[in-house]
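Repro:
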Amino acid sequence: NDELGVTFDEFSKIRILPSDQFEASENLKDECKEFTHKIEDFNAIVQVFLEMLQAKAEQIEAEKLKAIGLRNRVESELENRKAKRLQMQLLIKERHAELFR
C-alpha cells in the first residue's frame, strides 16, 4: 500500500514523503542546482567565445576592406601610369615633329 502519511524525521520535522524518498528528492534537487550552475558557467564561456569571434570577424572585415582599398589604389595607379605614358609618348611625338620642321 503506497499510502502517503505524515511522519517525523530525525530532526523532528514533519515529512509527507518517506525519508528515503525525501533524501532522493533532496539529492535530485542538489544535482539539479549543480547542473544549472554548470549550464550557466557554460553559457558564460560560450558568450565570451562568441564575443571573441565577433571581434575577430570585425577585425577580418576591416582588413578585407583595407585590402580592397589598396587593390583599388593599385589598379587606379596602373591606369594613371598608362595614361601618363600615353600622354608622354604623344608629347614626345609632338616635340619630335617640331624638331624636324
